[in-house]
Amino acid sequence: MASTPPTPSEPVAEASIRIDSHLDGSAERSLADDVLDGLTRPFKELPPKHFYDARGAELFDRICELPEYYPTRAERAILEEQAAAIAELTGAVELVELGSGTAAKTRVLLDALHSAGTLRRYVPVDVTESMVRDSAEELASEYPGLSVHGVIGDFERHLDLVPEACGPRIVAFLGGTIGNFPPGSRRRFLRKIARLLGPEDHLLMGTDLVKDPRVLEAAYDDAQGVTAEFNRNVLRVLNRELQADFDPDDFDHVALFDPENEWIEMRLRARREHTTLVRDLNLPVHFDVGEELRTEISAKFTPERLEGDLSAAGLELVSWLTDRDALFALTLSRTSTG
Question: Per residue in 109-125, pLDDT tens?
Answer without folding.
Answer: 999 999 999 999 999 99
